[in-house]
Every structure is written in C-alpha cells, then in structure tokens.
Known about the structure:
The structure holds 2 protein chains of 2 kinds. Chain A is mostly helical. Among the domains of chain A are: about 50 residues; about 35 residues, no CATH class. Chain A contains 9 helices and no strands. In chain A, helix 2 crosses helix 3. The mean pLDDT of chain A is about 75. Chain B is built from 9 helices and no strands.
Amino acid sequence: MKQDLIHKLKELQEIKPSNEFAAVSKLIILSGESAENLSWKVSLAQKLGHLKRLSPRTHFSAVSREFILNRQVARPTTLSQIFKKSFNYGLALGVTVVFMALITSVGYLGFLSPIPTDIYGKNLTDASDAIKDIDIHLQEAEYFAATDSTASLALREASTTSLIDNTSPTVIERESHRTDFKDPRNMNIDKLLNQATL
Amino acid sequence: MLEDEKQLIEKACGGEPEAFGLLYDHYLPKIYRFVLLKVGQREEAEDLTHQAFLRAWEHIPRYNDQGFPFSSWLYRIAKNIIIDHYRAFDKRKRDVDLEDVMEQLIDTESVTAEKNLDLKFDMEHLMKAIEHLKDTEQDVIIMRFVEDLPHEEVATHIGKSVGATKLIQHRALKNLKSILSSNR
C-alpha cells in the first residue's frame, strides 16, 4: 500500500509544462521584451514553421532529377583522359617555365655585363685589326705596282738603248745637269750613282 | 546534414550521378521552398529550382570545400539564379499566386474546416508579407524560421557576421509585423 503510494507520487514527476509555454516563458524572461511582443513573435515563428510543409510536386522532382542526372557533363573520367589532361597542363607549365627561365637568365647576364659593350667592343677591335691588315695589303699592292712599272720601264729602256749609250759621257753629263747635287735629299742617289759608275 | 555527406560530395565531384542524386533528394525541398517563397509562383519556382540544381551538377567538379555547409553553396546558386532570372528578362515580381500550393499547408490533422480556412488565410497573408521584405531579410526569415537553421549557419549563407544576422532578423520581424498589421 505504502509502496503503491510512493510509485504514484513518482509518476507525478512526469508532469511537464507544454513546450510552447516553456519556450514563450523562457524567451520573455531572458529577452526583457514585452510579453505581448514576444508572444507575437512566437506566434509568427509558429506560422512560418507551417511553411515547411511546402514541397515540390513529386512529378516535377522526378522529371527534373532524371533530366539533370542524365545530362552529360564534360569530366575526365578515364585514366587516359586524366593523364592526357594532366599532361597538357604539365606541358604548358613546362614550356612557360623554360621560357621564363630563358628570359630571366638573359636579363640576369645582361645585368652582370651589358651585352652591347661586350659584344660590340670585341667586334670593333676585330674590325679595326682587319682594317689595318687591309691597309697593309693595299700599301703592299701599291708598292708592288710601282715597283713593277719601274722595273718594266727599266727593262724597256735596256732593250731599246745600248749599254754604251747609258755609260757614255754625254748621257752622264746630261743627267748631271738635271740633278741638283747640292740638294741634301739627293745625297744617297749621288752615292748610288757613283757606286754604279765606278 | 546528410550522413557521409563529404563522401557523397567527393563522389559527385568525380562525376557519379548516384551520389549527386542523393544530395539532390536531400536538398531539393529546402531549395525549392527558398525559391518559392522568394518568387511566389509555383511554376517559376520549379523552373528556377531545376536550373539551380542543373548548374550545381555542372559546376560541382569545381566545388571547393572551405568548411562551409554544402547547402550554403546551393543556396548561393539558387539566389544567383533568381537574380539572373529577373535581370535577364526584365521581369517584375508577380503577385503571390499560391492557390494550388495552399492545399499543402492545410493541416490534415485539424478537425474543423473553419480552422483550416483561418490557417490558409494567415499563410497567404504571411507569404505576401514576406514578398515585401528586402532580399536579405527574406533570406534570414526563411532560413531561421522555415528551415530552423541556427544563427551561425544563416550568417554563413548570407555572408554576414552572426551579430549582423541577428540585427537583420530583428529588423525583418519588425517589418513583417508592420506589413501584416497594415494589411489587416
């Protein structure tokens, strides 16, 4: 009997306030808002909760789902496609990196030793050496040309005039008149002529 | 949130239609409600919802998990679709016409027809009032009170801080109350 009573009293523990009352009461206490305002908000929230019942029509969702999932979207699915795609990316990246490295290294070298001075300086030296060589060769050619004409003239004279004529006193005398012996510039010629005649 | 949602997303990113199908089934009602409450027309809502999921399926390989719920990505797509829709066709929002969806709102457990009529009347007024709110206010009201999302998640969806979201909610409720009072 006593135990029955205790059991029934324990069942009273199951008595609880309704969820709605608990929610409103808690909100009123914690927010400090007016009870009227809060109850309105709770009522509005409940009404808005009704809108959760809105759902798409079954026919629409079935048709839409089927259409979307059957739509082919371009994706790399096979391993070869993935490899091809990644290879293309890799190739493009590699070319870009090499190109950038090339530009950077050229720029860096240029920064260390300016290209124009170095290359052009060397070329200018080579060119001036070549010009000097050309000048020498031209001078030699001129010299040989002059020598050739002198030699040919001498040979022609030798062939047309006799040796006696060249050594005859009249010729020597005539030549001596034409030569200014007092001129210091002709001193060597004079010596040479003396050697030739003696 | 779905169980194993992360795995489903990964599979869908890899092009598995079955995985995306499961995500579609789970998120369709939420996205549909969101769109419907914003456009107020059932057929328009169905078209736009379809477009949103189609775009999601097409772009899912580029989906980047940044720790935000997957639903926020879907909500963002849906929102952009709605904006594009009105912008592209220079359409004005039509009046709410939910006569055919009202049946869904009627409480089947309710005993009296009078009670159902009251509810229908209330819902129609409420939905028209939501239409008059600003876009962000609509988003907050729908996500907080229709979808029961916590402040933090709503903040993520609309791209604002939690504090700003609470403020927008407060303003939205105030505006809603004023719209409803003036309509009566």
